[in-house]
Design brief:
mainly alpha; 79 residues; 4 helices
Length: 79
C-alpha cells in the first residue's frame, strides 16, 4: 500500500498533496474527538482543563484546514 501511494504521489504530486492534507485533517479531527471523550475521565480539574483546551484547539485546527482545503493545499504546492 505504501508503494502504491508513493507511486501515485510521484505520478500526480498535486493530487497527492490534496489527499494527504485531507487525510491529516480527518486524523486531527478524530484525535480531537476521541481525546475529548477521554478527558472526562481525569480526576483533577487542572488536568481536565488542559486536555479540554488541547482537544478544542485540535478540532479548530481540523476545521480551519477542512474549510480552506483545496486552496490551502495548492498554495503550498505551487509556491
Amino acid at each position: 500500500m505504501y508503494v502504491i501511494a508513493a507511486l501515485y504521489m510521484l505520478d500526480l504530486p498535486v493530487a497527492g498533496v490534496l489527499a494527504l492534507t485531507l487525510v491529516l485533517t480527518f486524523y486531527i479531527a478524530l484525535e480531537g474527538i476521541l481525546e475529548l471523550r477521554r478527558s472526562h475521565s481525569f480526576d483533577g480539574f487542572r488536568d481536565r482543563v488542559w486536555f479540554f483546551v488541547d482537544d478544542v484547539i485540535s478540532l479548530l485546527l481540523a476545521g480551519l484546514i477542512f474549510f480552506h482545503w483545496p486552496s490551502s493545499s495548492l498554495a503550498e504546492s505551487q509556491g
